[in-house]
Write the structure tokens for this entry.
Amino acid sequence: MNTLSHSLDQVVTANYSGPTLTIDTQKITKQVALFKYALPNVTPHYAVKANPLPEVLRHLHSLGVGFEIASQGELSLLQSLGIPAHKIIFSNPIKTPASIIAAVDYGVKYFAFDNPEELIKLHQLAPEAQYELRISTNGKGSVWPLTKKFGVDVKQAIKLIGVAHHNQIKISALTFHVGSQCTQSQAWLTALKDCEKIIQYMNKRSMRLNMLNIGGGFPCALHSHGQSFKELMNPVRSALKLFKQKTNVEVCAEPGRFLVASSGTLACQIISTTQKNHQPWAFLDCGYYNGLMELTEDFGYQLRSKRTGENIPWTIAGPTCDSVDCFTPKYHLPKNSQAGDVITIDNMGAYAHTCVSNFNGFDGPSILIKH
């Protein structure tokens, strides 16, 4: 090790006390403003799963943002923070009876479904609620498609609505989700066309919708280059304007990652480096189970080091004994990276905290809130 490397090692490891996730709430403020600017007639309901830290939820509430939940646990969290029921929608298409009852008791009105069994359950347990039918999408343009588990196609949707109409059950809303980190406007436009077909069917039967929920999937900017969010949403905004003129329904959305990802910066440390099959490996003190789950997919995350010099692709792994705790995409780090180097990763405000466990005894990052 030369003198320069040794000196730099001492600098980058100074005051390091373990992985830390810093959340800057001012960046959340900026993202909320950008969302409202790009989609001015769409009411945002933050997807709580993206980052359920109470400080984050309080800040979003102070900005007038509503909330989308998937469980009784998320409902209880919002209740503890004093979030009123009219600001909450329950968009998980599959819900436990206890969670439905708890939400009804609190005053939540909108509940999603995508199958007849769930619709019947809702009608029995929440007869005065507003039912929201989830439509499937093809997942094109998204990093993490959500096409397999939830949603029905137009043909199935019409059949479900027909059953509801026959049994005098009112369907009040349609919803869809284009998939996480979606970068193609066409994904929303295609889903809107499908919704229009369903609405035409409903209109013929004098069934009126109250709301359209265009879900989530709005991408955070992982790179400075490329299309801006406003540019991406321009065709969607125009399509929604026409949609509202035709249908006169309210429109809401469920942004999660978009609102909070840029607020988070994660700092961790290389604990070991080695060569395996002529490929450099770097083992971090934070891995798949400690907040870096999304590094398994090509979301576009970048690892930053204070070292200078040639950047080369490395295989990155976490600290646990599980073989899943390493990442298939190669991430670039300086060629001379060594144990002790501190690594920072931007855009970790979403899912880095909520997807943490202490598997193998390794805790997740400590949290630092910056106002």
Summary: Residues 1-8 have pLDDT under 50 and may be disordered. Residues 262 and 347 are 4 Å apart (CA to CA). The chain has two domains: 3-22+261-370, 52-255. The domain at 3-22+261-370 is CATH 2.40.37.10 (Lyase, Ornithine Decarboxylase; Chain A, domain 1).
